[in-house]
Design a protein that fits this description.
The complex is a heterodimer of chains A (166) and B (274).
Chain A: H1 2-19, H2 35-44, H3 52-65, H4 71-87, H5 95-117, H6 128-151, H7 153-165
Chain B: H1 6-25, H2 34-103, E1 116-124, E2 129-134, E3 138-139, E4 145-147, E5 152-160, E6 163-168, E7 175-179, E8 186-191, E9 197-200, E10 213-216, E11 228-236, E12 244-249, E13 258-261, E14 272-273
Antiparallel strand pairs in B: 1-2, 1-13, 2-6, 3-14, 4-5, 4-13, 5-6, 7-8, 7-10, 8-9, 9-12, 10-11, 11-12
Helix pairs in contact in B: 1-2
Amino acid sequence: MQLKIVLPVVLTLLAQRMLGLPGMPSWTAEVLLPVVWIVAAALLQKERGWPYHALVLGLAWDVLFEPVIGPGGIAWSAACLVLYALAGFVADRSPKMWAGFGAVGAAIVTLVHSAALIPLGLPFSLTLGHWVRMVIFTGLWCGLVGATLRLDLPSQWRTYRSRKLR
Amino acid sequence: MTAFRPTTMLTILLWLVLEVVAAWQVRTPDGAPLLATWIRSMAQPVIWSAHEIGHLIVDVGLGTTDLQRVVADNRSLRLDVERLSSRNLLLEEDLAALRDAAGLTSNNIGFSNGAVLARCTFRDVAAGSMEVRTASRVNLPRDTPAITGGGLVGRVVRSEGSRHWLQLITHGAAAAAVQTPDGAVQGLVVGTGGETLTVAYVPRQAMLEKGQVLVTSGGDGIFPPGIAAATVVHVRETESPFLEIGAVPTADIRSTRIVVLLPLWSAAGDGETE
């Protein structure tokens, strides 16, 4: 099961890299596409253990987007732990909740990542406006994914196919 | 308060490891890994503390050694002080003896031929005895007179080499023939066994006053004449034909340090020096 989601995660990371290519609008790089995976883990999993997958996701993020490997693992695992804790209090699994969790996850990832860079003496350019946009866009992205899952397209496709066969 | 769960500890440990891994990747301006700077910073207080503790131990050791040396020096200084105090006492004793010897210059008899100087080494006034020592071995005949600058002390009763024993005039069995300096009154000074003397055989009509000094008359054949022997302290008439006279020795027997021995005045008449 876990191997089935590795490819989509990798594709997500590659898509994130493409969003930052020259020529793309500047706001596209402010959408954190992989956040949807930790939101999905928090909202869809019945049993939530320690988020090792979030740690690996964060390290992969560092490999692709950061100058040093390590702070990403801290930031993404911290965000996943917080979302796990919130999911225990929230029963709603609507697209709005996906959007909210996405916004919280993005906020924590960026803040913790910036904090983890402080001891290293590396500069980070996290302005308030950049941070707010990142949170909103990522929340919208996760809400879109949640709405798409709510549509249950495979089931509708099967229904459509069965109606056509009749 | 909730317990600190192992999961939380594991999380923190993992995050610390990731931060250390990141620090290993970051380079400082001089090219060294940032992690080396962290390690150096963490080790610096430990190294400094160890260095200072080492210095402290060395200083304590040196201080202990110095303290021991000071204690030893103090001990030796105390011994030196005691030694010097003893020497000072001896010097004071010698000085007093020199003063006594200087007092003897006023007595011509003291420095006549054959006179022997002796130093008092022991006295028992209550027993009426005194031990004196001469610088060389001298064979003193019995009854050799002994005088000081103050007057008559006694006579030799025993002589062995350089050690000689005197019978003080205060001895209960001692006696000396005395008279007033003008020779008008004569008597016999007798020891009482204490610190006072009794002047016996002085007629009732004799004129004696308190404070009168009595000198040896030579009538006993032991002591040469003219040596101050006693000072009258009280005179009382009794029913006997003689006065009851009390006296004290003119010589300070208690503090005398130097005595002159006159062997030529003894009954044997010859003092031999070995």
